[in-house]
């Protein structure tokens, strides 16, 4: 069995200022600093999955997708491609980071799981910040 979960809820794109504003507002509510390249993840669905299905799954496959054609000068990040642009070949490259995280590595309490998810996204955001401000591939970073 598989469950696909998008903790950000939607995609990060500077052309949707309300989405970014909502994410920043949510991060303030949590007392956490907002990210530069990602939205603050929502943990409710992950908490429910872990509480009810932890014993049925071996691991989480954490996937981060980066589109090289979205890297602009001076660390600027352009919009991610739409599915139509990607399928049309406008963006024909993608860099992917995958991590296999065993379920036993996840905290059991809701509060600790929420902190764990935030730190996972903090790590992703730091990688992306370095990626967008350099000429390195994600593998080199």
TrEMBL record:
One Pfam family, short name: Acyltransf_C
Entries under InterPro entries matching the protein: Acyltransf_C (IPR032098)
Record-level Gene Ontology MF annotations: acyltransferase activity
Ranges of residues in domain Acyltransferase C-terminal: 86-135
Keywords assigned: Acyltransferase, Transferase
Entry GO terms, CC: endomembrane system
Acyltransferase among keywords: yes
Domain of life where this protein originates: Eukaryota
Assigned protein family: Belongs to the 1-acyl-sn-glycerol-3-phosphate acyltransferase family.
Name listed for the protein in its UniProt record: Acyltransferase C-terminal domain-containing protein
Organism of this sequence: Medioppia subpectinata
């Amino acid at each position: 069995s598989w469950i696909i979960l998008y903790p950000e809820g939607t995609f990060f794109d500077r052309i949707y200022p309300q989405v970014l504003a909502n994410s920043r507002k949510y991060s303030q509510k949590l007392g956490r600093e907002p990210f530069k390249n990602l939205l603050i993840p929502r943990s409710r669905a992950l908490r429910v999955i872990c509480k009810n299905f932890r014993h049925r799954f071996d691991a989480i496959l954490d996937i981060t997708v980066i589109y090289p054609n979205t890297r602009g000068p001076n660390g600027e990040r352009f919009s991610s491609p739409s599915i139509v642009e990607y399928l049309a070949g406008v963006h024909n490259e993608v860099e992917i980071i995958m991590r296999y995280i065993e379920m036993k590595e996840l905290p059991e309490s809701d509060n600790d799981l929420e902190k764990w998810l935030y730190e996972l996204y903090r790590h992703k955001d730091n990688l992306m910040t370095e990626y967008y401000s350099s000429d390195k591939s994600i593998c080199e970073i």
